[in-house]
Amino acid sequence: MEIKKIAVLGAGQMGNGIAHVCAQAGYEVIMRDIEQKFIDKGMATIKKNLERGLKKGRITQEEVDATLGRITGELDLKAVVKDVDLVIEAIPEIVKLKLDTWKEVDEHAPEHTILASNTSSISITQMAAVTKRPEKFIGMHFFNPVPVMGLVEIIKGQATEDETVEIIKTVSEKVGKKTVLVNEAPGFAVNRLLVPAINEAVFAIQEGVATVEDMDLAIKMGLNWPMGPLTLADFVGLDTLLYISDYFVEEFKDSKYRAPALLRKMVRAGWVGRKAGKGFYDYSGDKPKPMRF
Ligand code: CAA
Fold this sequence. Notes:
Elements: E1 5-9, H1 13-24, E2 28-32, H2 36-55, H3 61-69, E3 71-74, H4 77-81, E4 86-89, H5 95-108, E5 114-117, H6 124-128, E6 137-141, E7 151-156, H7 162-174, E8 178-183, H8 190-206, H9 212-223, H10 229-236, H11 238-252, H12 261-269, E9 281-282, E10 289-290
Parallel strand pairs: 1-2, 1-4, 2-3, 4-5, 5-6, 7-8
Antiparallel strand pairs: 6-7, 9-10
Acetoacetyl-coenzyme A is lined by residues 49, 52, 56, 58, 120, 143-145, 147-149, 191, 226-227, 232, 236, 240.
């Protein structure tokens, strides 16, 4: 089966990035959110990121126009999924919201449509089970910022068919990403490693091992990471990291995945990182200022 038309559910950070790369690869894309203002914001981000590429001479004005011309915004979920070949969901990580959305999508999407979730931790098998097509349900995990990061983790649920995996691999490669195939397990491959690593950096801050900026510098220069772990924590969102840590403890029944108390306290204070203007750094000034703990 050839994928031609894709619905992306959610116009947020991940959703607009996914819509961007799919449209740039030549797919017709409908980006859906629950309010027009979210769609407008997502479209503005896509435009800004395309123009960034134009300024650097990586793409032409014709490519920018053609990419934007392939993306439409839409609020009505039924209308969005009624004639698409693939649905990629990037809505908030709330289990009930995901399950309710998938039930509705399954009811209105054509029989051949493949359903893919960009979840970073929720069980693919659990979501697939609320649909009548678990063999066509799969995980398709992109990384932030989507236009830049080169990987898609493909996650096979209990009932996912090999044909579905092959189709998603083809789409991921067409949008310029390398793929890894992962059997379903909490955090898949990347977050299984990333979340405990970031948590360990936060434990070290909590214990006074180093300052925020020195811990970041140490890992950036000592391990050649593009961002230090605390900058990356702010980039991903402390709320997301806490959610994943708690989910790991619940699923693995192993306290080694527990979140540091400092992370929990910061989330309770609303200091969830860049999107809130404050996390391990304060973003209110000209350049990020490290916090003291
Ligand atoms: N959208 C599109 N392009 C972007 C971008 C964005 N949001 N941010 C940066 N870019 C582009 C820039 O235009 C630039 O392109 P060129 O090389 O062609 O000039 C390139 O990316 C590098 O950007 P900058 O020079 O501005 O900045 P940088 O070198 O510091 O790179 C970064 C920025 C790419 C974000 C880099 O710091 C990085 O790779 N950080 C780590 C990101 C990461 O680990 N992401 C995964 C998070 S985990 C996750 O997403 C999964 C989960 O489930 C939690």
